[in-house]
Each structure stands twice: as C-alpha cells, then as structure tokens.
Amino acid sequence: MTMSNRGAQHRAASSDRGPVDLGHARRAPSAGATPQAAETAGEPRLLAGQVGAEVAAALSSALERLEQLTRTGRIARHSLQALHDEIHRARQVAMLGQQVSRLAAGHVRQAPETLELPQLLREALAQRADAMAARGLELRQVLQPATVSADPSLLFALLLSLLDWAFEHCRSQTVSLHTGLQPWPEQAVLECRFTWCPPDRLAPEADLAYEVDRLERGDDPSHLDTVAWRLVEQAAQAMSVTLARADTASQVRLRLLFPETPRRWPRLVDALAEVDDGLSRLRSQPLAGLRVLVHAQRPDVRHVVHEALQPAGLLVDFVATLADLRECALQAPPDVLLIDERGSEVDRVLAEVKAGASGPVLVHVAEAFRGVELSSSGRFEIVRVSRDTAVRDLPAALGYALNR
Q1: How far apart are the first and last CA of the chain?
Q2: Is the N-terminal amide bond of 259 cis, ω within 30° of 0?
Q3: Three-state SS for 342?
C-alpha cells in the first residue's frame, strides 16, 4: 500500500527522541480506559496537576544534583548524565502535556486513508530502533495483515507514542506486538504486551510486609499512568480507536481496536472498469430526480461534485455548516449525503442521520485516496471516492450503493 506524501513526510520528520507531534484529530473517551484515566484525560485541571507533579519530580532531582555540585565542586560522569536526563525528562513531560491538551480540545483535523497497519508499525519500530538498542529490548512480533482507515500522520504518531510508553516501563527486555483481524465484528487489532514488574520482585499475596515494601518502591501499576500514557489515550480517542488495558501483578496487556475496516467492492470495481465512455452512462440518467445533500468545505470538491452529478440529473443542495447539514438531513432526508472530511463531530452527525435502515447513502469524497471502497464502522457504512476520479466514478458508485 502506497502512503501519501503527507504521511511519509511526517514520519520522516519524526525523531527518535522527545514527544511526537500529533498533527490531526478529535474524539470522545475510549471504551477501555480506566475511570481515573478518562477523568484525567478529560479534565484540564487534573492534567495540569499531573504534568506539574512529573515536571517537579524531575526538576527536584536535578536540583539536588546541582546542590551537590555546588557543595563539592565535583560531579561524577554518571551523575552528570543523570542531570541531563532529568532536565530532558522535565522538558519532555511539559511538551507531552501540550500535545494531550491539543488533542483533548479538538484543535486538529483528520484525513483518513486506507493503511496497512503492520507496515506502519514496522516503520515506527525502525524509527525507535536506537531506543530499543539503548534499553537492550527485544521484540516478539506476529504481524498478520490488517487494513485500517485512519489519518496516516496521527496513526503513526499514536504508534510511536505507544512504543515510547511501553519501552519506558518494560522491565523484562521483551515487548510483544501482534496485529491481525478480529472476526466479528471485523476489526483490525493491535496488541502490545510487556512485563512492568519482574517476576523475582513478586511474592505471595499473604506476605503483607513485602507488599507494603513493594508499593513503597513504586511497584504498582498506577505508576504506568504517566503523561505519556495520557497521550496514547488521547490519540486513540481522537481516532475513535477502542483502547483496552489490563494490568496484572506483573504484566500489561494493551489492545487497540480500530473502528473501520475498509474493503473494496469487486463488483463495483469491475463495473467501473467496463465503462468505456462515461458520457454514455450519464445520458441515460438512471439517478435523475434523486436528492443529494452536500457539506463540502473545499471549493474544489464542490466544483467536482457539481461537475460529476449535474449531468446525471441529480438534485444537489449545498449546506455551509455541520449544523445545517444535520437540520436539513433530519427534516427532509436526502437520498445521498456527501461530505469532504471526517472527524468526530461529522461522524456523530452521520450516525444520527443514518439511524435506521432507511437512512441516506453516505459518501466521502477523499483527497488523499485512490479508488472506490466501502468503509464500515460499528455505526454506519460510508462510500469513499477519490476526489481526483470523482467526475468519472461518483455516479457509478452512487448507482451501485443505492441499489445494494
């Protein structure tokens, strides 16, 4: 699968250090998040408190080392490296907090594409190869085919953030990664497992004194809920990815369930391939009189839609806002509802309008996409057509969808 130039440039620009710039997104809390995690991710004051606490801890440790340097006039090489790491950690936490706030506020946009999850995961692992080597980590990979519909930059950033968090907390030198498809409902799955507490530090539950000492050492899964974890949560929420984390006495098992699994329409692809002359198809006007409601922000998309549908005899109405789209679609349901971008707010309106089997056909004219396909989520199905070929493919795609 060929990635878009935009996604490739974003991945090339990502460094092996520091937080990842999550360039596009929105969404509500994931199903698998703990109540405390969802509360912290959604409450700015709690997030600010957590960021402040982690920054203060790093800077306090750095201050102690500086005071020691002032008293003695000397500092060991390992202490100097530790000082550098603590200052870097404080800076990193502050930047991660900014990213979490951005995602939580919905100040980003998405442009979904059809992506191969294993391929993108391999690229993320390649970028974190130095970090793995520095920690002496080994990977166990079972990367089975899994296709997702997602913004490439945001998905890649989510994978990098997930790897950073897992590598930081892994205590067994082995991280397991698995991709594949959940059979029903069909969803792409990414699973990550690692040991957060070495088995030799575990003891029978009856040993109360040991358990108290273990908690004092920080051997408790709650210490995994760092600002870095909040970033993983918010990135998943922005993409409507279900995030489920299960912590045991020593293990972490994290599963990401992606909401849409794109699939091609073989019959439609064959039908489009058999069309020798698009004008002959349009002259018959099999779709004449059907109503299309369009919410397109980009002028070029509005022009393409008009050019594609006007010769087919369709009645095309354009609306300026998402609120107008919802009102018009609910008061006078169209036969087709067409949009030019996806996001949590748009998807909520589409799900409301599509409620029931008699809802309109949903169409997304996508910019960074090639071909025609049907994407299915748990709430609705939507036809995706490339903007570059919409004049040729859109009428045939509508005809196929309306007669399914």
Answers
A1: 28
A2: no
A3: strand
What is the pLDDT, as a whole number, of residue 294?
94
Q: Which residue has the tokens 């992606």?
A: 258
Are 401 and 384 a contacting pair, CB within 8 Å?
no
Which tens digit of pLDDT belongs to each residue from 154-171? 899 899 999 999 998 898
Contact (CB, 8 A) for 22 and 228: no
Distance CA 39, CA 35 (A): 6
> Which residue is it, tokens 């750095």?
62
User: To the nearest 5 percent, what fractions of the chain are helix, strand and coil?
Assistant: 50, 20, 30
For 265, the token pair is 């329409």
Residues making up the chain, counted from first to last: 404
Q: What does the angle CA 185 – CA 191 – CA 192 come to, to the nearest 5 degrees?
A: 165
Residues of the chain with pLDDT under 50: 1-7, 9-10, 12-17, 22-42, 202-218, 266-283
pLDDT recorded at residue 2: 37
What pLDDT shows up at residue 377?
Answer: 62
* Inter-helix orientation angle 227-238/44-72, to 10°: 150
Strand partners, 245: 254
| Closest C-alpha among 190, 170, 343 to residue 257 | 190
Residue 365 burial (CB < 10 Å; 0-12/13-18/19+)? buried
Give per-residue pLDDT as tens, 64-102: 777 777 777 776 667 666 666 777 666 776 677 777 777
* Cα–Cα dist 259/205, whole Å: 39
Q: 178: which strand partners?
A: 142, 191
Question: Which residues fall within 8 angstroms of residue 339, CB to CB, at 6 or more apart?
Answer: 294, 295, 296, 325, 346, 350, 362, 363, 364, 365
Tell me 170's DSSP state.
-
How far is 363 from 346, CA to CA, in rounded Å?
12
Contacts of 292 (CB under 8 A, 6+ apart): 305, 309, 314, 315, 316, 317, 334, 335, 336, 337, 338
